[in-house]
Amino acid sequence: MTASSLSFKLAVLFVIAGMAMGIGMAASQDHSIMPAHAHLNLLGWVSLFLFGIYYERRPALDASRLALVQVIVWSVGTVILTIAVAALHLGYTAFDPVAAIASLIVLAAMVLFAYFVFRPARGIASSPTARLTPAE
Ligand code: HEM
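Above: inputs. Below: predicted complex with protoporphyrin IX containing FE.
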């Protein structure tokens, strides 16, 4: 499986879970886990989907094992962080170190992504606009 394909699949699963969480908060009128909902949607849906778009436009990177590792590490970190943030906001203070470790996991995944962005570009998919020639 490519990194983009895994990103898109996991992102859709995360947003379904995030939306269900939002509906649960709205229905119960208890917004105490709102930060967990926000993190799940923004890390799990928005960021992961953006990673997928980036990878899909770079086929060589998309097919690499390292990009797949980045998506998996990010996703595992997102799940742990969401659970830990929810638990903290429900009063389970013992989850503080879990949240701290999870935050370092997602940071590590973002640093790996930054490495992909800053290293010299290889295999970027050409878009139709790249083939346009000036009128004169
Ligand atoms: C069925 C879909 C959704 C429902 C029912 C829902 C519901 C909610 C509720 C009830 C809150 C708490 C508001 C408050 O206490 O002030 C909230 C907050 C939030 N939601 Fe959602 N949500 C949904 C989808 C999403 C999605 C897709 C995203 C992101 C892409 C998102 C991002 C956020 C953020 C960032 C906050 C925090 C806002 C703040 O700090 O005031 N939500 N949502």
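Residues 3-119 form one domain.
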